[in-house]
């Protein structure tokens, strides 16, 4: 005990505290300049862009089960919410207002995931590799890959009021895509800790990649190594831009894709024609075209009986039954009372 007390008497707590503070002050700028976990693209885009859409905590769908949304005699149907899905079958973005284009709502179904499926059992080489001549691209939806429902999509638009000291002012919009992903071992534990500290206790690690919102120019296509290919969408096989080299390898692993995973961008000059569900050109004055929609420009369900959160819907209407939401034509009153 006497020996221990002599040691503690020689121990300078003030010097130890000063040393710890010095080390922390030295390490803080190191971690800021060289963070142990890479900074997300979205964190960088916040400096020059603004995110499109309503925050999830302010979603109109939070009240979808209220009795006031049920069909009522004499009640005029009301548009409750607008949604777009920049990537087909992934999470949507809720909007307060949307620009209506001949193809549908602006930024809707621009991208689509696909897999390179063999045309026949003999189309795979001895090494197990697939080639373009022996296989064909076919679109993927939630029916084949339910985990697509966990893929989050954001649109970042340039903000004239923002300017980064390092990046300046960036032009053009971006589509940010995030999906759950945690590395193994110690790095995975660090990712988990960072996710919970930065985004809440219920958050988990995610991996992110970005895509251009606008259709790339020929120079960008050549520089990025994109190429064109036919991709099957139901009975059609439109010519679209293959941007699969932008996908991280982890995404195919997470989704559980059996074949090569790809992502395609609809080409504005080679959109799909709509014949079955659209008015004729003689009636509308133009030929109906769509990007990667199923067969219609807009999906218009009601809140009841099929709830909108279970469907990839664009215009969500309350005050009417699902059976009655069949509009060969419609007139909409805006916030100023004008009818269109």
Q: Which H/E pattern describes the elements?
A: HHHEEEEEEEEEHEHEEHEEHEE
Give the terminus-to-terminus CA distance. Answer: 91 Å
The rounded Rg comes to 26 Å
- How would you classify the quaternary structure? single chain
- The number of domains is 1
Number of strand segments: 16
Spans with pLDDT under 50 lasting ≥5 residues?
A: 305-309
Helix content: 10-25%
Mean pLDDT: 79
Largest sheet: 5 strands, mixed, barrel
Distinct helical segment count: 7
Secondary-structure content class: alpha+beta
Strand order of the largest sheet: 6-7-11-12-13
Global geometry:
globular
Q: Name the beta content range.
A: 15-25%
How do the helices and strands line up, and which of them pair or pack?
Elements: H1 2-10, H2 13-33, H3 41-45, E1 49-51, E2 78-84, E3 93-95, E4 100-101, E5 104-105, E6 111-118, E7 135-139, E8 152-158, E9 174-180, H4 185-199, E10 206-212, H5 218-224, E11 227-232, E12 239-242, H6 249-255, E13 260-265, E14 272-273, H7 281-284, E15 289-290, E16 315-318
Parallel strand pairs: 7-11
Antiparallel strand pairs: 1-8, 2-3, 2-16, 4-5, 6-7, 6-13, 8-9, 9-10, 11-12, 12-13, 14-15
Organism: Metarhizium acridum (strain CQMa 102)
Domain Molybdenum cofactor sulfurase middle: 78-155
Transmembrane segments: 12-34
């Amino acid at each position: 005990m006497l020996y221990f007390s002599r040691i503690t008497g020689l121990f300078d707590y003030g010097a130890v505290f000063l040393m710890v503070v010095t080390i922390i002050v030295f390490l803080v700028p190191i971690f800021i300049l060289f963070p142990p976990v890479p900074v997300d693209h979205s964190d960088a885009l916040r400096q020059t862009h603004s995110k499109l859409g309503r925050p999830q905590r302010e979603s109109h769908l939070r009240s979808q089960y209220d009795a006031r949304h049920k069909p009522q005699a004499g009640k005029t149907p009301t548009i409750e919410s607008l949604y777009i899905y920049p990537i087909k079958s992934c999470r949507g973005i809720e909007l307060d207002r949307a620009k209506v284009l001949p193809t549908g709502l602006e930024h809707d179904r621009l991208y689509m995931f696909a897999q390179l499926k063999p045309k026949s059992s003999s189309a795979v080489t001895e090494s197990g590799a697939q080639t373009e001549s022996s296989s064909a691209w076919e679109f993927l939806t939630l029916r084949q890959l339910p985990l697509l429902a966990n893929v989050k999509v954001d649109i970042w638009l340039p903000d004239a009021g923002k300017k980064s000291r390092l990046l300046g002012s960036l032009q053009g919009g971006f589509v940010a895509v995030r999906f759950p992903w945690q590395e193994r071992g110690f790095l995975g534990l660090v990712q988990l800790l960072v996710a919970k500290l930065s985004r809440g206790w219920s958050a988990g690690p995610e991996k992110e990649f970005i895509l251009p919102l606008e259709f790339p120019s020929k120079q960008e296509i050549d520089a990025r190594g994109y190429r064109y290919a036919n991709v099957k969408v139901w009975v059609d096989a439109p010519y679209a831009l293959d941007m699969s080299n932008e996908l991280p390898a982890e995404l195919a692993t997470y989704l559980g894709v059996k074949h090569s995973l790809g992502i395609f961008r609809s080409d504005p000059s080679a959109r799909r024609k709509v014949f079955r569900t659209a008015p004729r050109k003689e009636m509308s004055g133009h030929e109906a075209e769509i990007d990667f929609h199923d067969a219609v420009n807009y999906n218009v369900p009601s809140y009841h009986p099929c709830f909108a959160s279970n469907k990839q819907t664009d215009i969500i209407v309350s005050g009417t039954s699902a059976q009655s939401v069949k509009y060969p034509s419609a007139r909409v009153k805006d916030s100023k009372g004008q009818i269109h």
